[in-house]
Design a protein that fits this description.
By secondary structure, the chain is of the alpha+beta class. The chain contains 26 helices and 34 strands. A hairpin with a 2-residue loop joins strand 28 and strand 29. The N and C termini lie far apart (69 Å).
Length: 818
């Protein structure tokens, strides 16, 4: 063993050992508590980046810590292998997307192993392989059978860059979530999953997720968007069916002086043929198609619209009111139609002022005139005026009474709506799961029989953007109808790749099952996931979809869980030069290069030590160099110690007692911090212990047996963070090779950690004036008495009146004087 710490040789040695012994393979052990830890499914983009390194290092430290605590730990990894980047690379480089993907997986897998992350590779899952995506198709058929999957024509989000449809959740500020390009609206026939069937449950169950960050819960609540109100039908002149409007302020309906429909509304499309208003309507609708939703509804944005030439009647008053279309109404919100009450809604007020539409006050509140000009809308509750038989009722009374009247007369009822819309899963791309449906001229839309799954994705060459690439593969498209045996055509859209990541954590529990997606009994042992680590950017994408999928699987009888993840942790980004690392900014740092220069353990230490895990991590080589020095310093102390007989006893000095106390305080601190995902402060505590060890080691009469105990414990404490180093140090200290990771976590003894004395700070009016040493058992009354008797305190309080004494037990006395 070299006196110098040779990280490259050490890390290769232990990585070989872990591979040869298959040390991290996990089996069901019902007699031991389980701990399922998971980092979000990585996309094989070509190489790991520092965001991966941070995410996986944080997870790995917890996995190793829990394993040493005696848990049966499941820590798997796989690949989110379908998706647009592979297809775009195939088009650009003229290589099959499967080859591009598998080459990237091989490279990233080597990088993972080089970092020493303790994964159970026997459970590796790759979503682009038929043994996985077969079950995507199986789930689709189960949903179709239960009417949770359906096809319809409608307005969809279209990404021109990706040449495919996006779900609402994948549009961020009017742009594609993946590439940031502008999103437009198109009318296409698409497959949908009825996630809205679970909207209420998805919302209510958020209250049960005590281990999730409040920020994520708030984002999901806002996205699901529950509103309580009434659905009211407005008759339309010359149209058989009324317009359905949802309102949360039924008390203001007598002030509804016009209706507004979304430009995408079916009636607006129908009225575009009107010879008088049609040309203006068509031009406006086309203009709105080119605008993104967010800019249309932005706060303070210009309100624009066109009169449709059509009229409706207020079902309560019978008043004839005009129907407009405007940019601030979206089809996917509510019913795509609103009743405009300009006196009591600022958006409607601005629109009415612009187009000289009637404004009528119907709710009298403080400072609001019943008649005359308003300077702005007033949304307060109050007493109804100008509201027919309901005049004089309070807003609260009117909501109830008017709702009952609508129900009795058959034109409305109290209802609840959600902002959440059904999940559009059709994608007009090649590299995804084929949708297992067949279109037959005689039988219509027919599902592929389960026994014929998987519907294999064919080899495709010469991919091009535009349309569904599978439609240009006749040997895939042309098939037989499973009902009548006649000619049929396969569905040529593929599934949204978020389908792959919506249930993969269940497959990890039983990855080789070829009869079911997984054995429910196996899943019952491993699930829920105890700790899930990933980025906040997936709060309303992956995390809503996976919760929906779990509930569907529960209703299929595959699981008994209502929620799949117990604790969610969202780590911060890695930034450099003040910006998130990205290729486009040219500020990326290659993990391979820094591992080659400093070693995997130094990188792991830096990525966990230099910032709180939930905060941003600013990349800097000085911090990395500091972590490397710390490892070399600890190695040097251990090397010097082993050259002296470890059995040599020293005297029971104050220094020995202080070191033992510091050791147990560190065990307590590191244990508590790892329990709370505070890796940075845990490492800081170990570094502080090394400082005290160094002083003790160099001192006269050091107890070598105590030092041996401390260094062995430090090796175990380091094992979650720098596992290669820890194993080598453990062996250096004479322990059996390769057993640090399988040893028990160090035990904390409170008596040994207790300080012999504490320092109490004394303040006067918030300023420190004195300190005194005391027993840790000192009471609050004794602290106050000693503080008031202190000579320096008395000098500052002479001639003054003590008004109050504030005692913080075992820490502080603050004396308030005048």
């Amino acid at each position: 063993m070299s006196d110098r710490y040779e990280f490259e040789a050490v890390e290769q040695k232990w990585q070989r050992h872990w591979a040869e012994t298959d040390q991290f393979r996990t089996e069901m052990l019902p007699d031991r508590p389980k701990f399922y830890i998971l980092e979000m499914l990585p996309y094989p983009s070509g190489a790991l980046h520092m965001g991966h390194v941070r995410n996986y290092s944080l997870g790995d430290s917890i996995a190793r810590f829990r394993r040493m605590q005696g848990y049966n730990v499941l820590h798997p990894i796989g690949w989110d292998a379908f998706g647009l980047p592979a297809e775009n690379a195939a088009i650009k480089n003229r290589i099959p997307p499967g080859k591009w993907t598998q080459d990237n997986i091989a490279r990233m897998k080597r990088q993972c192993k080089r970092m020493g992350w303790a994964y159970d590779w026997s459970r590796e899952v790759t979503t682009c392989l038929p043994e996985y995506y077969r079950w995507n198709q199986w789930f689709f058929l189960q949903m179709y059978e239960r009417r949770l999957a359906y096809k319809k024509k409608g307005t969809v989000n279209w990404c021109r860059e990706c040449q495919t449809v996006l779900a609402n959740e994948q549009v961020v500020d009017g742009r594609c979530w993946r590439d940031g390009s502008q999103v437009e609206e198109r009318e296409l026939e698409q497959w949908y999953w009825r996630i809205t069937e679970y909207a209420r449950e998805l919302l209510e169950d958020l209250d049960r997720l005590a281990g999730w960050p409040e920020r994520v819960l708030t984002m999901q609540r806002n996205w699901i968007g529950r509103s309580e109100g009434a659905g009211i039908q407005f008759p339309i002149e010359g149209v058989a069916d009324p317009i359905q409007v949802f309102t949360t302020r039924l008390d203001t309906i007598f002030g509804a002086t016009f209706l507004v429909l979304a430009p995408e509304h079916e009636l607006v499309r129908r009225w575009q043929d009107d010879p008088e208003q049609g040309p203006e309507l068509r031009a406006f609708v086309e203009e709105m198609r080119q605008q993104d939703r967010e800019s249309r509804i932005a706060e303070g944005g210009e309100k624009r619209g066109v009169f449709t030439g059509q009229w409706a009647r207020n079902p309560y008053s019978g008043e004839r009111i005009p129907i407009w279309t405007a940019n601030f109404v979206l089809l996917e919100y509510g019913t795509g139609a609103i009743m405009a009450v300009p006196a009591h809604d600022q958006r409607d007020f601005e629109f009415a002022r612009k187009y000289d539409l009637k404004i009528r006050v119907v709710v009298q509140s403080e400072g609001v005139p019943a008649e005359g000009e308003l300077e702005h809308a007033v949304a307060d509750y109050g007493v109804l005026v100008n509201s027919g038989e309901f005049t004089g009722l309070s807003s609260e009374q009117a909501q109830r009474v008017m709702g009952e009247a609508a129900r009795e007369q058959g034109f409305g009822e109290a209802t609840i709506t959600y902002r959440l819309r059904d999940w559009g899963i059709s994608r007009q791309r090649y590299w995804g799961t084929p949708i297992p449906m067949i279109n037959c001229p005689k039988c219509g839309t027919v599902p592929v029989p389960e026994e014929d799954l998987p519907v294999l994705l064919p080899e495709a060459e010469g991919l091009e953007l535009g349309g569904s690439p599978l439609a240009r593969v006749p040997e895939f498209v042309n098939t037989r109808c499973p009902r009548c045996g006649g000619e049929g055509r396969r569905e040529t859209d593929t599934m949204d790749t978020f389908v792959d990541s919506s249930w993969y954590f269940f497959r990890y529990a039983d990855p080789h099952n070829d009869q079911l997606p997984y054995d429910p009994e196996v899943v019952r042992y491993w699930l829920p996931v105890d700790l899930y680590i990933g980025g906040i950017e997936h709060a309303v994408l992956h995390l809503i979809y996976m919760r929906f999928f779990n509930k569907v699987m529960r209703d299929l009888g595959l699981v008994k869980l209502d929620e799949p993840v117990k604790t969610l942790f969202t780590q911060g980004m890695v930034i450099k030069d003040g910006a998130k690392m990205s290729k486009s900014r040219g500020n990326t740092v290659s993990p391979d290069e820094v591992v080659e220069e400093y070693g995997a353990d130094a990188v792991r230490l830096f990525i966990q030590f230099c910032a709180p895990p939930e905060g941003e991590l600013e990349w800097n080589h000085q911090g990395l160099e500091g972590c490397s020095r710390f490892l070399r310093r600890l190695w040097r102390v251990a090397q010097e110690h082993r050259k002296i007989a470890p059995t040599r006893q020293g005297r029971g000095t104050d220094e020995s007692r202080a070191l033992l106390r510091k050791l147990h305080q560190t065990i307590e601190k590191v244990t508590q911090d790892l329990e709370r995902m505070h890796q940075n402060t845990a490492l800081a505590a170990i570094m502080e212990l090394l400082n005290q060890v160094s002083v003790y080691h160099d001192g006269e009469g050091a107890d070598r047996s105590l030092l041996q105990q401390v260094l062995e414990t430090m090796a175990l404490l380091m094992s979650p963070f720098a596992p290669h180093f820890a194993e080598e140090m453990w062996e250096l200290l004479g322990q059996p090779p390769g057993t640090a990771a399988t040893s028990s976590w160090p035990a904390f003894e409170p008596e040994l950690a207790r300080e012999d004395e504490i320092q109490v700070v004394v303040q006067i009016n918030g300023k420190v004036r004195s300190r005194f040493a005391a027993s840790p058992a000192i009471s609050g009354e004794e602290m106050e008495a000693r503080a008031l008797a202190d000579e320096r305190v008395q000098a500052h309080t002479e001639g003054k009146t003590v008004q109050k004494v504030i005692v913080v037990p075992k820490k502080l006395v603050n004396i308030v004087v005048r």
